[in-house]
Amino acid sequence: MQQTILVTGGAGYIGSHTCVCLLEAGYQVIVVDNFSNSNIIAPERVQQITGKTFTVHPVDICDRKTLAAVFAEHDIDAVIHFAGFKAVGESIEQPLNYYHNNIYGTITLCEVMAEAGVKTMIFSSSATVYGMNDNVPFKESAPTSATNPYGHTKLFIEQILQDVCIADPEWTVTLLRYFNPVGAHHSGLIGEDPNGVPNNLMPFISQVAVGRLKKLKIFGNDYPTPDGTGVRDYIHVIDLADGHVKALESTGKQKGVAIYNLGTGHGISVLDVVTTFEKINGIPIPYKIVPRRPGDIASSFADPKKAKNILQWIAKKTLEDMVRDAWNWQQKNPNGYA
């Protein structure tokens, strides 16, 4: 029997790619998105890629009444929860917005789900919950903390969902801790299109390459890493999206909370990403070194063995795939979805 999956934030970067993977795996998809950091064109492109139609509701998850109406209209089996603000710098400037939108929105979603009898959720968490811990590679059992309001919202939501499962054993929750998603669908139809100046490395590089920005800023070259720049675990967004499908397939075998890292298990420096982009795409990327950002750690990468052993999931795409697909998207969409 075909399952129906509600995807909150399904028009966003990771959400839209996950919708592609869900539809290709045979699931029926319902999207809710308030389009505050996404574009209505993305779901249209997803339908173009897959040849399958699905319903998109322009709904804010903080709006209980309209969200409840979505659950009343559809027979939903599970929820994949992406919706939330996600910029670290902005969260420091606007903490109340982040706490209200991310935490209150999730509480509202959980309450509406419970009322509708839907008690299966996959939550979009983040490696930011490991805080300033430098004991890499990070295992799911590592201590958690946060260094900014965005990270705090992920940590608090993880705790809320664990408490929900303790209070009601009918709930099944999977917490997926992402590392650094990059790249785009190979068609170039969907990709990362951030508002304003990008916070993340790959869209910043791509926008320099396409001429929207003059120069890449590299935050610090004095870290205790091979070339002095920060080391991160970059994962192709399609691999990440596939991880959600694998997690969904696994929910029938578990009760309570399961936590998985989604990463490659390999650290790559900022300069390695830049030079690989230049080599694969034949585009020079001018850059300047600027001071470190507060709260950035030298090295962060995953131990993904648990996801491999239990979900039968591994990241398959290479850094070369990531930079090639990111540039393909940016070339075909120099101004994003605009």
Structure description:
It is built from 11 helices and 14 strands. It is an alpha/beta fold. The protein has a domain at 4-190 and 234-265 and 300-316: NAD(P)-binding Rossmann-like Domain (Rossmann fold, 3-Layer(aba) Sandwich), CATH 3.40.50.720. The strands form 4 sheets. Strands 3-2-1-4-5-6-11 form a 7-stranded parallel β-sheet, sandwiched between helices. A 3-stranded mixed β-sheet has the order 12-9-14. A two-stranded parallel sheet has the order 7-10. Helix 3 (64-73) packs parallel to helix 5 (95-116) and helix 7 (201-209) packs across helix 11 (319-332). The mean pLDDT is 96.
Looking at the overall shape, the CATH architecture of the domain at 4-190 and 234-265 and 300-316 is 3-Layer(aba) Sandwich
Write out the CATH superfamily name of the domain at 4-190 and 234-265 and 300-316: NAD(P)-binding Rossmann-like Domain
**How would a crystallographer describe the biggest sheet?**
7 strands, parallel
Order of helices and strands: EHEHEHEHHEHEEHEEEHEEHEEHH
Number of helices: 11
Helix content: 25-40%
Instruction: Report the count of strand segments.
Output: 14
Query: What average pLDDT do the residues reach?
Result: 96
Q: Radius of gyration over alpha carbons?
A: 19 Å
Sheet-strand content, in percent, reads 15-25%
